[in-house]
Amino acid sequence: MDDFAINVAEREKAIVRTSAIGIITNVLLSVFKAIIGIISNSIAVTLDAVNNLSDALSSVITIIGAKLAGRAPDKKHPLGHGRIEYLSSMIVAALVLYAGITSLTESIKKIIEPEVPDYSIISLVIIAVAIAAKLILGAFVKKQGQNVSSGALIASGSDALYDAILSSSVLACAIIFKIFNISLEPYVGIIISIMIIKSGFEMMTDTLTDILGRRADAELTKEIKRIITAEPQVRGAYDLLINNYGPDKNYASVHIELPDVMTVEEVDKLTRKIEMSVYKETGVILMGVGVYSYNTGDDDIAKMRNNIQKIVLSHDWALQLHGFHADTAEKSARFDVVLSYDIKKDEAISTLMKEITAEYPDYKFYIIPDSDISDI
Q1: Which fold has domain 8-212?
Q2: Has this prediction a pTM greater than 0.85?
Q3: How many CB atoms lie within 10 A of CB 103?
Q4: Average pLDDT for consecutive 10-residue bins of the chain (376 residues)?
Q5: What are the DSSP calls for 184-209, one per residue?
Q6: Of 112, 229, 311, 361, which residue is 20 to 30 A from 55 by alpha carbon distance?
Q7: Which class is domain 218-371?
Q8: Is the CA virtual torsion 95, 101, 104, 110 positive or negative?
């Protein structure tokens, strides 16, 4: 995808490279913290070491997910394997949740059965260095995740930043203990554990939204409609539906409104031009372009459309009318109405049919309800 997105192969390399850096850093931090935790008899430091080890595992999962997602389309998966990355993001979020719940459990245990820690100056210096390392690593991984649209990397980077906060609280508790001989470790551990659990839950729900299918980005839908309606023959673009099959893998369909005098050949040339323009400028592949025709050269039909539109849009739950076409010979008319989720479709169509038929009793109307799937 030209200038707007990273090449698939380069994207995969970036994810693997960033994850490898995370694995090495977290394994080293885990070893150092485990040694300090055992020597100083600190449950907080020991848990922090385990947390770093789980972060390394998260990076391994991210690499596996990127490799699997990068596989070429096949007969069973013609649109590729990009959504596998959402599954790896879900696993990373589950690990964050597990780390938070484990920390919470151990912190509560230490309140019930307290143990006196014993920190040395060297251990405090190592913890401080670990905090700096985690801050740098977290910012780096999260930035790389945003650059390559990797939910798993963003989740790992966010987790690393939370780990830095956790380690900072451990360092603060250690300093307070050395100065005032007061152990706050388990209580601070509970607070940090709740923060980690909250972060993991948010990561999981956000990834679940991607799997279920989130509402298309407002800026992207506006840009696609701008490109389409820039063509002079197009009066409007409607029913834009974008399906996501992994980061930067978007397939879409749309309806456009064209004059009823255009030939099939003219429509074919126009739709192909639109498909190329949308792909070149946004990277979205238009899989289908449907057509609504609108009446030309008939003032009475234009007045009828305007009047019906006024009736329809008098209701708060009716967001838009499009695709209007009337046949004066057959005394019939059809159009689509975009409905809010605040009203049932059957109820809305029944209300509109009653009001419009009362205004035009000689006509037969076909009203198609549309869902509010993109910004109008």
Answers
A1: Alpha-lytic protease prodomain-like (1.20.1510)
A2: no
A3: 25
A4: 52 81 87 81 71 77 77 79 80 82 83 75 80 88 82 77 78 83 78 80 84 79 93 91 79 91 94 93 89 83 91 93 90 93 92 95 93 68
A5: -HHHHHHHHHHHHHHHHHHHHHHHHH
A6: 112
A7: alpha beta
A8: negative
